[in-house]
Structures are given as structure tokens and as C-alpha cells.
Amino acid sequence: MTAVVAYATYLPRHRLQLAEVGSTLGTGGGRGARVVASFDEDSTTMGVEAAAALLRAHPATPDALYFASTSPAYFDKANASAIHAALALPPATFAADVAGSSRSAFAAWRGAKADRGLAVLADVRTGRPSSGDERDGGDGAVALLFGEPEEAIAEIVAERSWSAELLDRWRSPGEAAGGQWEERFGLEAYLPLLQHAAADTLAAANLEQADHVVVVSPNPGVRKQAARVFPGVVSSPIGHSGAADFGLGLAAVLDHAAPGETILLLSAADGCDAIVLRTTERIAKSRQERTVSGQLGDGIDVPYATYLTWRGWLEREPPRRPEPDRPAGPPSARSTAWKFSFTGSVCRQCGFTHLPPMRVCKKCGSVDGMDPRSLASSTGTVATYTVDRLTYSPSPPLIDAVVDFDGGGRYTLEVADAQPDDLAVGVPVGLSFRRLFTAGGVHNYFWKARVLGVQQEQPGESAAAAGGVR
């Protein structure tokens, strides 16, 4: 038997205020804000963020990696292999995609559970302007690690699944947004199935009721009616998030569940999947470092017009500059460790860290005396920076920073999710796996700096003097 031994979530920082959507389009936009992936984020990059956070807190080498998404960055190419490379997992670790529907997440769950592996669930939910998918959706990722029962934070007590062919939601290949029948149609089919699944799975677990109930579904009517059928039920904390939906709902409960409590997890999508889990004594000290609610509270607003541009619904004048060259396969293969896991080299003679990796030491001149070192989980500080208001960016201005990494190493990186006022000399930064650009249908993935906290200027030191603005 295997059990859940660790989990971690990732929610992008940008927030779309629904009131602005309503006022812009002259419709009822709703209350609150939608969690929005940035222009340089996709399901792969968010999956890396969630999985990397999990493995930093719970170092492990999973035997397999299963990646589930309804919005894969590639077809005809495994997206899981990019996540595998970014995590610097060994070649023997099996990595594969399971994609196409929200229910793909349970295929990833089952595969990772069987293989004592890692399930990574991530999605960018896109809907037409003013649609329910735009209003009620959310972007995010979750990683779940399975292992031995003695390491469990949550034991799997019972698990049941029922399949049903139901044309409730669909999206043809190549379409940016999907379609859905009137929600009442799916509700009438799903609600009896949910009730049956709950009763049968609780009976298999020898329980009359669970301490926590999570119900997720692409159908908004199911989410609304579940509150009447299951008292105290909770749903996905960010709205429907595709393949990440049930994992984010589970993570939000694990963030505060006490040891020995039971969780009934129900997902109504192309049938119904039901799981009963029981938390262990380890849950109190093995929760993720940043809770779902904590990540929800850490947001920055994005204008609606900018969001529409990011998603391709608003076509703006392109830059009058040459298009970037398409990344080529051979050089990408030669520099996989550098591009995907930010692996440099450390000289054995003098300890100097080279970014990118080098054969000849810049400090002592020794040749072929290097050891690899991944800095993907490292932190550092800004040595200097520049704010570029002339170059094209989907989210101007573009900010570049020279980063001095703790323990050695210096490199110039683009700064993600930041405004010019966030930068100053000495500001601590970490790394975030992002998409630099897409050219010829090929995504150029690399790492960007991400501000961890704004540090006050030291006496006599001017941030404006250290960082150029043009």
C-alpha cells in the first residue's frame, strides 16, 4: 500500500478583478478576483513550481512522474519530460503525460500511487470574454508525492470510480475555449452519481460521514448544489482549475486538517471519482510551507486589457523588430542541464561557480576539473538591475537583474512578476521556471529571478544609481 507523503501547491501572483471585467464589458462581472497565470507561465512552468516546492521541503527521488493537464503546452511531445528535466530527476525516472480532460488528474493519481511516484496537476483555464469559464475559472498547480505508509501524512482508506459518457463539456483540438450545455443538464446526471459515490465510498471506509468533504466539478451547478447535499462541503479554492481542481481542493484541506481526521474527496467529471483519506500524526509537521490561503492573499492586479492580450483574445500591434529565432533541438539537448535545471559548474581547484557551466575555470585556469551544481533552488541578491521600457514585452517594462547567488555564482536574469519599485540593490530573489518566448511553435523555457522581499536601501546607497532606467 502507498500513501500521500507530501504535497505542495503553486498559485500565480496575478489577479484579475471581476468587477473590472463587468464594467469593461457592461456585464455582471461578479465579486472578488480570479487567479491568473502570467504571460510567461503555462501548465508546464506551474507544474515545475509546485513540484520543486514539494521536493525542497521533502527531498525524494520518485520512481515515476505523471503530469495531468487540460492545457498542455505541447501535443506530440511529452510535457512531463520538461518537468523531469527542471527537477533534475535521474533518467531512470519514468515521466509521462495524461491529458485531455479534468479526469486525467485521477489517471495521474492512480499511476503515481501505483509507482510510488509524483503526480503533478496543472492548468491554465481559458474562457471567452465574459464567459463563465473566464469568471469562475482559475490557474494553478499541485504536486502530490506517494510513498510508504510509515511516512504518510494521509492514508488512502477507500477509493471508488464510476465512468459515464456525458456531453456536458467539450473543446475541439485547436480551439482556445470550450463549450458547455446548460448546467442543469449535467447537474441532473452528476448529482445522483455524487450521492451514490459518497455513500458507497464511505461504506467501504466504514464511516458514516467524513470530517471534511471536498466536491469539485467543471459543472458550476454541481458545485452550487453540493453545498445543499453535503453540509460543510468545500470546493476548489480558486474556482474550477481543470486537472488541478481536486488536488487544490485536497491541499486546502490538508493545510488545516488535524491528525486523525477523514477527508471525502468527490470529483464529478465524465463520471465520478471518490476517495476517502485519513490524516496521520505527521500532518501537523509536514504541511506545505505556504498554504493555499496564504498564496491566495499574495496577489498583484493585472488590467483586464493586459489579461486579454496574454490569452490571445486582444490582438495588439506587434513590435517592429525581428522575430526571435526558433530554439533548435541539438543545442537545446547539449545544454539541457543548464536550461532546465539551472546547473552550472564548480571548479574543484578553487571553488569558483560558473554560470553557465564552463570547461576552463575563469578564476584559476584549471581545465576539465569541474563538478555540476544546480542552483534552481538557490537564493541570491540583486547586485544591479535595469528597467527597459523600449524592448517589447507582453507585460512592460522588462526588468533585468544581475544576481549574486548565495554560495557563489553570478548571472543576469529577467525578473518575473515585478514592478520597478520592487527592485533595489540587495533585494533577495529566488528562481522561477518560465517561458521566455515562443517561436515557430517551440517554447523557449528558462529561469527568471523572482523577488522574495523588498529590502530597504542602505544609508548612502541609491537604487536609482545602481539600476538604469531607459
UniProtKB/TrEMBL annotation:
What is the protein name given in its UniProt record?
Hydroxymethylglutaryl-CoA synthase
- Pfam name, any one: OB_ChsH2_C
Tell me the superkingdom of the source: Bacteria
Coiled coil, from the record: none
Q: Which InterPro entries match?
A: ChsH2_C, NA-bd_OB-fold, Thioester_dehydratase-like, Thiolase-like
- UniProt domain ChsH2 C-terminal OB-fold: residue ranges: 376-434
One of the entry's Gene Ontology molecular-function terms is: acyltransferase activity
**Taxonomic classification, please?**
Bacteria, Bacillati, Actinomycetota, Actinomycetes, Pseudonocardiales
Q: Which organism is it from?
A: Saccharopolyspora terrae
